[in-house]
Specification:
Distance between the termini: 16 Å
Number of domains: 1
Structural class: mainly beta
Helix content: under 10%
Radius of gyration: 18 Å
Number of strands: 19
Strand order of the largest sheet: 1-13-12-17-15-14-19
CATH architecture: Beta Barrel
Largest sheet: 7 strands, mixed, barrel
Length: about 270
């Protein structure tokens, strides 16, 4: 049997902005460390994404001792990795009302200038408890500002199969996964998995990922097209949605808010448990 390996590991510190390819990631109660802990919201406090604001793709981040934010034609912007304000505000992401911490006014001006609409960057503090997928999996499972689940997994075989059908292949970053798996003997093998282990961390495969229009946004240019969603709809559509990738939750995680932690690394072996 072919060995399954973790060949790609990604975080997206600012929801809907550019991702970061990393070699190691620490697990936390809400998912991978720093993943989607920041979010851009409009004047009403509702989350903004590439669905309506594809220019978010052009905002790049880097993590050092701060979160460094860059975008074309803009000065560099840096903020602390922990809450940099005492101002708490309520924000909304997919119907969930969540407490968040506001950013300094100059940071909000930066985002407003680049996106061309009044907006604000907020941070999710450790005290915020947002249930995964509206609490369907119980109070133990919490999530950051991700849409509904803390982890998204896609196999490289699934992307290769899609690219065989496209006139112009697309990279994996169109689908914004956290985990990329290599070694599957067929496309969408991940559809049949119920539980897996990556390194020493066990996960439950919660549900397939229903895709929106974001995969049609070129992450390098911020331009929108019809593909790959148009082609995906020809063979991955059912129940009034288009599906690509699998949402995961950690199982048996214990108290991630304490000292216990686990680290995932590119190259970790993946075992299908069920």
């Amino acid at each position: 049997m072919t060995t399954l390996t973790l060949s790609g590991l990604y975080i997206y510190p600012i929801k809907s902005a550019a991702g970061i390819a990393i070699s190691q990631a620490q697990m936390t109660a809400r998912g991978l460390q720093y993943d989607r802990r920041w979010m851009v919201v409009d004047a009403q406090g509702k989350f903004m994404s590439q669905r309506r604001f594809p220019r978010l793709a052009l905002i790049k981040v880097a993590i050092t001792d701060q979160l460094k934010i860059t975008a074309p034609g803009m000065p560099d912007c840096s903020i602390p990795l922990t809450a940099c304000s005492d101002t708490e505000t309520m924000v909304e992401v997919w119907g969930d009302r969540v407490p968040a911490v506001a950013s300094p006014a100059e940071v909000d001006k930066w985002f407003t200038q680049f996106l061309g609409v009044t907006c604000q960057l907020v941070h999710m503090p450790d005290s915020s408890q947002r249930p995964t997928d509206h609490g369907k999996l119980g109070s133990e499972q919490i999530v950051s500002f991700a849409d509904a689940y803390p982890f998204l997994l896609i196999s490289s075989a699934s992307l290769a199969h899609l690219n065989e059908k496209l006139d112009s292949p697309v990279p994996m970053n169109r689908f914004r996964p956290n985990f990329v798996v290599s070694g599957c003997d067929r496309p969408h093998a991940e559809d049949d998995w119920q539980q897996i282990r990556i390194g020493d961390v066990a996960f439950s495969v919660a549900k397939p990922c229903a895709r929106c229009s974001i995969p049609n946004v070129d992450q390098a240019t911020g331009k929108r097209a019809l593909e790959p969603t148009k082609t995906l709809a020809t063979y991955r559509a059912w129940d009034k949605a288009i599906w690509f990738g699998q949402n995961l939750v950690e199982i048996g995680k214990g108290d991630r808010s304490g000292t216990r932690s686990s680290t995932l690394s590119v190259g970790d072996e993946i075992e299908v448990l069920a």
